[in-house]
């Protein structure tokens, strides 16, 4: 067949939407649906944001020169470091204790279940600020803490009033409160694992604790990690309540001390918000990669590396 006739036939078949001369279907040219409402909404939002930014930039009450002066102040930096320490230590305590409480709630032992339920009832039923105030009053409740035999020799004794342990009490208060919420998160993750997994572990001769440690908890991580990341971010912001103890070395406490002297709370609060926002953004990035690590195998969608390996394997099979 001449080249012109072949081209005509191919073009006619393509316009008919059937198949080309090679037998492959003609790709469909999709035309996206126009949505002018989206552009109108975007323009309105951008206009409102622009007006707000312009108003804030030209409003002298914001005191942007003071904001720039204290944004990288050494005292603010030390306060941010204390806030990170409070967050990390409190969450380590909360995760460890929350996992233990979740296992206790799911235990066949009724005493362990009751103890865990009472703990959750107390710490979830009272505000965290009230709990922190209580921890700040511990030196007034207990002058000394002694470990030993009642009415007998005392092996260790602590003078609580002279310990100056506001930081330790802040970690305890935040960690014990957060443990009640982490317990429910871990319990939901454990319950998400099918009963067949537990039955198979029992059939292999594992005890209840071994089943939890080796089979259930590793699979429950996919459900536990996302809300745990949210709790860490929430804990970062909850540390601003440690002033109830009182503890003034955290980020918000440092900013409060500064604007208590220069009487400019607005720029110092903006500095605090900026630091919280930066730290939260870093934590969100870490949460994303941690979720992606534990979600491997949970989706049927293959990654680019897996697709390339599959294509290479098919090439090897065809070559043979």
UniProtKB/TrEMBL annotation:
<dbReference type="GO" id="GO:0022857">
    <property type="term" value="F:transmembrane transporter activity"/>
</dbReference>
<dbReference type="InterPro" id="IPR010065">
    <property type="entry name" value="AA_ABC_transptr_permease_3TM"/>
</dbReference>
<feature type="transmembrane region" description="Helical">
    <location>
        <begin position="266"/>
        <end position="290"/>
    </location>
</feature>
<feature type="region of interest" description="Disordered">
    <location>
        <begin position="1"/>
        <end position="23"/>
    </location>
</feature>
<keyword id="KW-0812">Transmembrane</keyword>
<keyword id="KW-0472">Membrane</keyword>
<dbReference type="InterPro" id="IPR000515">
    <property type="entry name" value="MetI-like"/>
</dbReference>
<protein>
    <submittedName>
        <fullName>Amino acid ABC transporter permease</fullName>
    </submittedName>
</protein>
<feature type="transmembrane region" description="Helical">
    <location>
        <begin position="77"/>
        <end position="103"/>
    </location>
</feature>
<dbReference type="Pfam" id="PF00528">
    <property type="entry name" value="BPD_transp_1"/>
</dbReference>
<keyword id="KW-1133">Transmembrane helix</keyword>
<dbReference type="InterPro" id="IPR043429">
    <property type="entry name" value="ArtM/GltK/GlnP/TcyL/YhdX-like"/>
</dbReference>
<keyword id="KW-0813">Transport</keyword>
<keyword id="KW-0029">Amino-acid transport</keyword>
<comment type="similarity">
    <text>Belongs to the binding-protein-dependent transport system permease family.</text>
</comment>
<feature type="domain" description="ABC transmembrane type-1">
    <location>
        <begin position="80"/>
        <end position="287"/>
    </location>
</feature>
<keyword id="KW-1003">Cell membrane</keyword>
<dbReference type="GO" id="GO:0006865">
    <property type="term" value="P:amino acid transport"/>
</dbReference>
<feature type="compositionally biased region" description="Polar residues">
    <location>
        <begin position="1"/>
        <end position="11"/>
    </location>
</feature>
<dbReference type="GO" id="GO:0043190">
    <property type="term" value="C:ATP-binding cassette (ABC) transporter complex"/>
</dbReference>
<feature type="transmembrane region" description="Helical">
    <location>
        <begin position="39"/>
        <end position="57"/>
    </location>
</feature>
<dbReference type="InterPro" id="IPR035906">
    <property type="entry name" value="MetI-like_sf"/>
</dbReference>
<feature type="transmembrane region" description="Helical">
    <location>
        <begin position="115"/>
        <end position="138"/>
    </location>
</feature>
């Amino acid at each position: 067949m001449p080249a012109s006739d072949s081209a005509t036939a191919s073009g006619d078949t393509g316009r008919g939407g059937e198949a080309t001369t090679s037998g492959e279907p003609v790709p469909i040219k999709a035309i996206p649906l126009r949505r002018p409402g989206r552009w109108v909404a975007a323009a309105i939002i951008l206009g409102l944001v622009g007006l707000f930014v312009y108003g804030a930039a030209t409003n002298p009450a914001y005191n942007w020169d003071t904001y720039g002066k204290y944004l990288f102040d050494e005292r603010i930096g030390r306060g941010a470091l204390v806030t990170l320490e409070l967050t990390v230590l409190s969450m380590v305590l909360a995760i460890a204790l929350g996992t233990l409480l979740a296992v206790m709630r799911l235990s066949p032992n009724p005493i362990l279940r009751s103890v865990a339920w009472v703990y959750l009832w107390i710490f979830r039923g009272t505000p965290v600020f009230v709990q922190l105030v209580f921890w700040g009053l511990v030196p007034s409740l207990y002058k000394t803490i002694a470990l030993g035999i009642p009415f007998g020799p005392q092996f260790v004794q602590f003078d609580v009033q002279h310990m100056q342990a506001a930081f330790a009490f802040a970690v305890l208060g935040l960690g014990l409160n957060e443990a009640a919420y982490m317990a429910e998160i871990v319990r939901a993750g454990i319950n998400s694992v099918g009963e067949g997994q537990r039955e198979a572990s029992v059939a292999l001769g594992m005890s209840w604790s071994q089943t939890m440690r080796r089979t259930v908890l590793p699979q429950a991580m996919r459900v536990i990690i996302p809300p745990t990341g949210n709790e860490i971010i929430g804990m970062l912001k909850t540390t601003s309540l440690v002033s109830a103890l009182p503890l003034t070395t955290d980020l918000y406490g440092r900013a409060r001390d500064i604007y208590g002297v220069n009487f400019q709370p607005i720029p110092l609060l903006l500095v605090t918000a900026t630091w919280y926002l930066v730290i939260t953004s870093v934590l969100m990035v870490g949460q994303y990669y941690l979720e992606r690590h534990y979600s491997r195998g949970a989706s049927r969608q293959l990654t680019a590396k897996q697709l390339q390996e599959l294509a290479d394997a098919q090439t090897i099979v065809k070559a043979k």
